[in-house]
């Protein structure tokens, strides 16, 4: 699912030149009004660069929403010789930031009156938002304050904005807010949000601080929370805090008059009305607090939650951003009784809900797209998600828990206090969280052929995800990848549906028991089988999304092919009790049905008919990211088509208000039945009850200390080791010896970001040290041998015994990584040069770190050992473990390794099959390979057939494995089409339990190798 970067505010701020003003500890000396302090002159003194470097950078809801900036020499520049110019065409949100380097101190603006700059007006009447960041530990963990001006003039004009005009942002705060006080003593700079809609251009110059601060200093009254849940009969306590700009004592008294008024609770019946005044006298210290108590009354009746707004009128200071609201918790209603069966609780709650409340439960928004936190209650939202890279600030376990708890608190202000279900794409560990344990991507897990490993990696992921307050994971991907040109091929366990099915033990790792009884535990999450169905089979060139070539395209199959290849893994997932299913962006063109390509989000025959009907799926179906927008027709048509097709919850990241209203309209118009809505909401509520969210909506952080722990990283290290596939090992140069002098080169030897791939910290991932972990180079160095490292192989090669060249891809995901969309399967020129130089100078092992096979072509003869390392995650020590022989190579190819791109698509079972390495290929080390040729194969065949008849899977697999190792040794490097076909078929037969036939096909490959 496509994922945005963070919304503007999560990335705002600022590079500032050092300020010249100095302040005494108790009586700051304001800067003279005639001596402004420049923040930015746009003369080139600050580069275009993101944090942690000092610089100006752009952002937006997607790549197209980011403005293009440049410094332009202008004869009419108001300040200096250059101005900042830019063009923009913003559909969602976009703008630019001027930000400090991460290690720069904050700046003190408290001596100044405000911020001003020159703006070249276009006279278009558009609002331009200006934002500053205050307090916190750095610009990404500060408080956001905003204002705007109107471009209703032409030519240059100086815009002056007093700090008193900036208001605390209520729609988003990166750390959930700090103290709601514009202190001005720890400032991180400014950002400009450009208007959405019609594109345009702008020019800006001379940003500076001006004037001298008002000696009286502005005061603010804040409350401890916007929502105060309280049990019936208890008293709610609201804390009022006075704070001042610069933290100086107040020069004048501040009064706060309060009274309970409005809401759904009845005064005198549900609570005792209160009214009064709190006074903060002149000279009150900043940070002083007072409390107001609101008693509630117990009447013993069963009731939904009721609200008691507390209206505050502040004199002498700025009021809170929101009036606080007391919520008397729902009580004595059957759905709240955890002792009742889930089905009974669901039925009771559903019977009480309005159509609008039901529609809200079917709505999922991106957390950073909320226009205000109160929208959670106002629209009764059922779910929020973090897209790839959509993280709290700071991006820590505590930051996640605090953010999600704040969202859950807002849900307490609804009638039935239905908790949110929060979801993330934790596709190889809790990959959005810095410091989490990052596993190999699924293609590497498939290479391990180890179902227990798949389970264990899922269990670690679940534990780390749930410990941050997230109960729902959009994983695993059960796609069967059929074309290596696909940009998300590495999200698949492999090209064989039998292999994918064997790895679905990951569902139990994530969820626990098949009946869902473990879901309430603090180390389990709801899993999602995606993307239903056929996303791995789209035809190259069939995509119509952006510049994608294959992702989100069309899967053209017969019904038999659909059943055998793409549907089979979903029946396994349903049998394992998977809680949710996500349809694919792609279209299905089913031969003979006369419909042509139809988007999966509209295929009622597949979702209602096959998934929910024939397969018996009883969880709920969640759409992909804004996927209903790709359906033909208008928004109303998209809503009714998708919901009627069987979608239960719709991921509408930014359009949550519109979707909810439209769904209500469609039901009232009779185009969507309320019965269909009730079915959807029942399914959603069932999972919320099973997860225990009604009893514990807030984060259980008891497992947070295990996030990124040695215990968890040990699982990831084992996964990295088992995922390595040894394709060639001429002369047995692997395993390495610590006595050898090692020469290490290549672009991916010492790059953790490349090693972890896409879906790591951000949606697309990125190169570099993006999260804690160990690179392959670091793993090799820790192994005890003498290592020389030269990324480009420019260092002298003489005197070394063995070279290790680690090459491959840089991160990408989804259609952005499609071959033909700026990508191919060739090694880069730099990687090719490194391989050529090192392998010409010494014995060499080449490791390919990539999400799919790379074409090695004629270089294979010059390479002594070739390893498919896939994307091994954060634990490079695991790769070193097999290279140095602490563990054996045991991995096998989960996909066919082609000779050329012209062969694609190429898969096990194809009539024409002549790959460089067949599906299932994988040499071993530290293992005695059976000898005896045909005679041994005959004996193994008899044993395999007997094991098959007896249902002795362990013995059957062992016999086939011995036969495979024998045949591989006989084949050596002479892989022909006649050999490859039966060899690959044998691994498929092994996975389907046909052990005798598997050995027979291996014997056939052996005979073909003998000519």
Automatic annotation (TrEMBL):
Pfam families: Calx-beta (PF03160), CBM_11 (PF03425), Glyco_hydro_3 (PF00933), Glyco_hydro_3_C (PF01915). One of its GO terms (biological process) is cellulose catabolic process. One of its GO terms (molecular function) is beta-glucosidase activity. Residues 1-24 form the signal peptide. Its EC number is 3.2.1.21. It catalyses: Hydrolysis of terminal, non-reducing beta-D-glucosyl residues with release of beta-D-glucose. Belongs to the glycosyl hydrolase 3 family. Gene3D superfamilies: 2.60.40.2030, Galactose-binding lectin, Glycoside hydrolase family 3 C-terminal domain, Glycoside hydrolase, family 3, N-terminal domain. GO terms for cellular component: membrane. This is beta-glucosidase. Residues 208-313 form the Calx-beta domain. It comes from Streptomyces aurantiogriseus.
């Amino acid at each position: 699912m496509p994922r945005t970067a963070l919304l503007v505010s999560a990335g705002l701020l600022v590079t500032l030149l050092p300020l010249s003003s100095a302040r005494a500890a108790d009586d700051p000396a304001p800067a003279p009004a005639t001596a402004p302090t420049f923040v930015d002159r746009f003369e080139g003194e600050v580069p275009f660069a993101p944090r942690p470097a000092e610089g100006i950078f752009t952002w937006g809801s997607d790549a197209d929403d980011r403005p293009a900036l440049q410094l332009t020499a202008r004869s009419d520049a108001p300040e200096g010789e250059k101005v900042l110019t830019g063009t923009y065409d913003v559909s969602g949100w976009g703008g630019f930031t001027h930000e400090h380097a991460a290690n720069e101190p904050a700046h003190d603006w408290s001596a100044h009156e405000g911020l001003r700059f020159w703006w070249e007006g276009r006279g278009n009447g558009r609002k331009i938002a200006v934002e500053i960041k205050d307090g916190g530990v750095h610009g990404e963990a500060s408080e956001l304050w905003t204002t705007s001006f109107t471009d209703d003039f032409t030519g240059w004009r100086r815009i002056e904005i007093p700090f008193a005009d900036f208001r605390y942002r209520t729609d988003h705060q990166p750390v959930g807010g700090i103290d709601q006080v514009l202190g001005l003593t720890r400032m991180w700079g400014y950002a400009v949000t450009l208007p959405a809609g019609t594109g345009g251009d702008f020019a800006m110059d001379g940003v500076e601080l001006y004037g001298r601060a008002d000696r009286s200093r502005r005061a603010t009254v804040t409350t401890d929370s916007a929502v105060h849940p309280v049990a019936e009969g208890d008293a709610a306590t609201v804390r009022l805090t006075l704070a001042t700009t610069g933290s100086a004592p107040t020069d004048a008294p501040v009064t706060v008059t309060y009274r309970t008024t409005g809401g759904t609770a009845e005064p005198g019946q549900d609570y005792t009305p209160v009214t009064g005044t709190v006074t903060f006298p002149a000279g009150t210290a900043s940070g002083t607090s007072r409390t107001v108590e609101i008693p509630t009354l117990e009447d013993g009746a069963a009731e939904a939650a009721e609200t008691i707004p507390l209206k505050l009128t502040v004199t002498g200071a700025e009021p809170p951003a929101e009036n606080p609201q007391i919520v008397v918790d729902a009580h004595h209603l059957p759905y709240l009784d955890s002792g009742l069966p889930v089905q009974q609780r669901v039925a009771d709650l559903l019977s009480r809900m309005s159509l609008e409340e039901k529609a809200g439960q079917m709505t999922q928004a991106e957390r950073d797209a909320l226009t205000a936190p109160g929208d959670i209650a106002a629209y009764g939202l059922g779910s929020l998600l973090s897209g790839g890279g959509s993280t709290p600030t700071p991006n820590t376990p505590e930051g996640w828990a605090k953010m999600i708890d704040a969202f859950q608190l807002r849900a307490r202000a609804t009638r039935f206090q239905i908790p949110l279900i929060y979801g993330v794409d934790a596709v190889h560990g809790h990959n959005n969280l810095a410091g989490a344990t990052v596993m190999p991507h699924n293609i590497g897990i498939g290479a391990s052929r180890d179902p227990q490993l798949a389970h264990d990696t899922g269990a670690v992921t679940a534990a780390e995800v749930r410990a941050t307050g997230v109960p729902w994971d959009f994983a695993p991907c059960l796609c069967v990848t059929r074309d290596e040109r696909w940009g998300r091929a590495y999200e698949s366990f492999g090209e064989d549906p039998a292999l994918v099915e064997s790895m679905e033990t990951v569902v139990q790792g994530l969820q626990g028991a098949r009946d869902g009884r473990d879901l309430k535990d603090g180390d389990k999450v709801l899993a999602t089988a995606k993307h239903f169905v056929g996303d791995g089979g789209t035809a190259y060139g069939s995509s119509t999304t952006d510049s994608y070539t294959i992702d989100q395209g069309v899967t053209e199959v017969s019904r038999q092919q659909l059943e055998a290849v793409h549907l089979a893994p979903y029946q396994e997932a349903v049998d394992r009790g998977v809680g949710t299913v996500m349809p694919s962006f792609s279209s299905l063109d089913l031969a003979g049905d006369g419909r042509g390509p139809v988007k999966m989000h509209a295929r009622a025959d597949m979702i209602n008919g096959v998934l929910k009907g024939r397969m018996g799926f009883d969880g709920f179906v969640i759409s992909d990211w804004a996927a209903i927008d790709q359906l033909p027709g208008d928004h109303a048509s998209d809503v009714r088509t998708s919901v009627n097709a069987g979608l239960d919850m719709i991921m509408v990241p930014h359009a949550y208000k519109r979707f909810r209203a439209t769904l209500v309209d469609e039901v009232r118009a009779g185009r969507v039945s309320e019965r269909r809505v009730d079915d959807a909401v029942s399914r959603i509520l069932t999972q919320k009850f099973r997860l225990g969210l009604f009893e514990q909506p807030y984060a259980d952080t008891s497992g947070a200390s295990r996030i990124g722990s040695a215990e968890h990283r040990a699982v990831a290290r084992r996964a990295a080791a088992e995922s390595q596939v040894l394709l060639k090992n001429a002369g047995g140069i692997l395993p390495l010896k610590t006595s050898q002098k090692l020469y290490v080169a290549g672009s991916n030897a010492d790059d953790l970001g490349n090693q972890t791939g896409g879906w790591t910290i951000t949606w697309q991932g990125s190169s570099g040290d993006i999260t804690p972990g160990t690179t392959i180079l670091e793993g090799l160095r820790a192994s005890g041998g003498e290592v020389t490292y030269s990324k480009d192989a420019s260092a002298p090669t003489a005197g070394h015994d063995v070279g290790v060249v680690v090459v491959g891809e840089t991160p990408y995901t989804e259609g952005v990584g499609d071959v033909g969309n700026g990508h191919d399967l060739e090694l880069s020129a730099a990687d090719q040069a490194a391989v050529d130089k090192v392998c010409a100078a010494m014995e060499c092992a080449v490791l390919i770190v990539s999400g799919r096979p790379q074409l090695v072509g004629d270089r294979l003869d010059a390479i002594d050992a070739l390893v498919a390392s896939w994307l091994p995650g954060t634990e490079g020590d695991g790769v070193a473990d097999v290279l140095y022989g602490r563990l054996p190579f045991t991995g096998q190819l989960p996909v066919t390794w082609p000779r050329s791109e012209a062969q694609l698509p190429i898969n096990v079972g194809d009539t024409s099959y002549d790959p460089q390495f067949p599906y299932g290929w994988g040499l071993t080390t530290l293992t005695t390979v059976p000898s005896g040729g045909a005679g041994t194969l005959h004996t193994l065949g008899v044993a395999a057939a007997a094991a098959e008849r007896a249902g002795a899977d362990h013995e059957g697999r062992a016999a086939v494995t011995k036969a495979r190792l024998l045949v591989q040794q006989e084949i050596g490097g002479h892989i022909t089409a006649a050999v490859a076909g039966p060899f690959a078929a044998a691994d498929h037969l092994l996975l389907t339990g046909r052990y005798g036939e598997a050995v027979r096909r291996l014997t056939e490959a052996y005979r073909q190798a003998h000519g």
